[in-house]
Amino acid sequence: MRFLADGMLGNITRWLRLLGYDVKYEKLRNDDELLSESRMENRILLTADVELFRLARRRGLEAVLVKEHSTVEGLSRLSRKLNLQLTVNHERSRCPTCGSPIMRVEKRLVEGKVPDGTYDRYRRFWMCTSASCSKIYWRGSHWKKIKQTLEKAKKMK
Ligand SMILES: [Zn+2]
User: Fold this and answer.
1) Is the torsion defined by CA of 85, 68, 7, 31 positive or negative?
2) What gap in Å lies between CA 75 and CA 11, rounded to an integer?
3) What is the DSSP secondary structure assignment for residue 110, as one 8-state letter?
4) Is residue 7 helix, strand or coil?
5) Pairing of strands 63-65, 125-128
6) Cα 129 to ligand 1 centroid, rounded to whole Å
7) Rounded to an integer, what distance in angstroms lies between the CA atom of residue 49 and that of residue 34?
8) Ligand 1 centroid vs 101 CA: distance in angstroms?
9) What domains sit in the chain, N to C, each tagged with a CATH number?
């Protein structure tokens, strides 16, 4: 299952990538471009725009209308519609920033690339596999919040 998200869905895009889904995020495309990209690349269109959603459906494309009132609602809705797994597995996770796969890296490789306090406190680190991004991730203090959000979204079902 692969997705194409419109420019209003940056937040949901990051969440889906964290969950391991392949999401292409297009900030600057117009409706026609989004529709043809969704068709050509066989990606489910995620949009916050009712008109675009209807247009996609009329053209026989798979699309989901996502209103981003809250992350919990958005994730819950997507999970109901598409049977998404709302569980983070870092073996599958993608970089929330660029969408490339991330991979576990040895701790010593991130020395000097993350704040000293972080380096001392955490054992496990992951790095984005895209050379132009190379962002480093760890299960920091925000991790608890991520899990809480996902739990809430699961319960909304
Ligand atoms: Zn990245």
Assistant:
1) positive
2) 10
3) G
4) coil
5) unpaired
6) 7
7) 12
8) 8
9) 2-82 (3.40.50)
Expressed in angstroms and rounded, the spacing between residue 54 Cα and the centre of ligand 1 is 32
The answer to whether the pTM exceeds 0.90 is yes
CB-CB contact of 104 with 90 (8 Å): yes
Q: How far is the CA of 120 from the centre of ligand 1 (A)?
A: 23
Q: Residue-wise pLDDT tens for the chain (157 aa)?
A: 999 999 999 999 999 999 999 999 998 899 999 999 999 999 999 999 999 999 999 999 999 999 867 899 999 999 999 999 899 998 999 999 999 999 999 999 999 999 999 999 999 999 999 999 999 999 998 899 999 999 999 998 6
For residue 109, the CA-to-ligand 1 centroid distance in Å is: 17
